[in-house]
Specification:
The chain is an alpha/beta fold. About 40% of the residues lie in helices and about 20% in strands.
Length: about 350
């Protein structure tokens, strides 16, 4: 990293977490996230409520990030922010704030692609974490995204597989809802799956060509299965909850690892990095470790706090773009469907 004193303030507001981080020469000094609890009542993110909560949270979160980092606004070198993809109302709050602050401080403004940031989180300077060498395969799995990306360099990325319908995180959450679990259901399914038998119930894996994914058919299969069993035994869910969770998780992990096996075969690349909120799942982490022994993969899993939406990952992209002199101007607009 450069010997200059580069202080990046990063802002992330793509969904329902308002986050700010301060990075100094590639190292994180603060990484603050304000989560919005209100969505739990609705069993999913309500865009209108999310953007309002961002408006309330953004000033205190940025203030806290600067205080924790022990620096003043005057010391900042540049402001990085999430331009997209994400919820438009949420993105607008972060974009407007970042533009105004950069303009007021007369420092560079850097726009960041949220999906690139999940991948480049692996390059945050951390003790005991090895960075993946180029080229590597990145699998980004979250509530809104499921992608396999061939990463040739920091900013040369090619999506080689993605979901044609729902994201993997959505499959976890919707299945959890059917089982009467709270939102988000992913962590609860993970916890219960550890206590259950993954082969208790079988769900068919969807047949999708190439490296693309599909999860809507699986969600429907789980729905019909639950309805049929509950009709025969009204206590079916309570009596078999751990086994159901284990079987759902086993099927989802099977879908992900099958595609990874195919991707490594097609590209000849065996370095695999994962990111996104679902990469916190213990079953997926175990499956990747098994892949190391079984298929000769080398896997890279970022620190837990860099997997879900956070501003540290926005900061590292901001830092790398700053070193290249790749800035945005004040006409930059948020983009809900921004591509890698």
């Amino acid at each position: 990293m450069s010997s200059q004193n580069i202080y990046i303030l990063a802002i992330e507001s793509s969904c329902d977490d308002t986050a700010a981080a301060v990075m100094h020469n590639g190292r994180i000094l603060s990484n603050i996230v304000a989560s919005q609890k209100i969505h739990e009542e609705y069993g999913g993110v309500v865009p209108e409520l999310a953007s309002r909560a961002h408006q309330q949270n953004i000033v205190p979160v940025v203030d806290q990030a600067l205080k924790k980092a022990g620096i003043s606004k005057a010391q900042l070198t540049a402001i990085a922010f999430t331009r997209g993809p994400g919820l438009m109302g949420s993105l607008l709050v972060g974009t407007s704030f970042a533009k105004s602050l950069a303009y007021g401080l007369d420092i560079p403004l850097i726009d960041v692609n949220h999906m690139q940031a999940h991948i480049l989180a692996h390059f945050i300077e951390e003790e005991d974490f090895t960075k993946p060498p180029f080229p590597f395969l990145a699998m980004t799995i979250s509530g809104g995204h499921t992608q396999i990306v061939k990463v040739n360099s920091y900013f040369d990325m090619e999506v080689i597989g993605e979901t044609i319908d729902d994201a993997v995180g959505e499959a976890f959450d919707k299945s959890g809802k059917l089982l009467g679990l709270g939102y988000p259901a992913g962590p609860e399914i993970d916890k219960r799956a550890r206590l259950g038998n993954p082969k208790a119930f079988q769900f068919t894996k969807p047949k999708v060509d190439g490296l693309n994914f599909s999860f809507s058919g699986l969600k429907t299969a789980i729905l019909y299965f639950i309805q049929k069993q509950v009709k025969a035994n009204s206590n079916f869910i309570e009596e078999h909850l751990n086994d159901i969770c284990a079987s759902i998780q086993y099927t989802i992990i099977g879908i992900l690892t099958d595609k990874l096996k195919l991707a490594t075969k097609q590209t000849g690349i065996t370095h695999i990095a994962i990111g996104g909120g679902v990469s916190a799942n213990s079953g997926i982490r175990e499956a990747l470790k098994k892949g190391e022994q079984k298929f000769g993969w080398t896997t890279y899993i970022p620190k837990f706090e860099y997997t879900t939406d956070n501003a540290a990952m926005i900061a590292i992209v901001g830092h790398l773009k700053y070193l290249e002199g790749n800035y945005a101007d004040q006409s930059v607009m948020a983009s809900a469907r921004l591509k890698i």
